[in-house]
Amino acid sequence: MYPQSAVEEFQHVYAQYKLTVYHFMYRLTRNHHEASDLMQDTFLRFYQSGSSVQGKSIKSWLFQTSYRVFVDHYRKKQKRNCSPFDLAPEPACPETAHPEQCCIHNEWEEELHRQLERLKPRDRQILLLLAYEELSYREIAERLDCSESTIKTAIHRARLKMKRDSGYLAASV
Question: Is the pTM of the predicted complex or chain greater than 0.85?
Answer without folding.
Answer: no
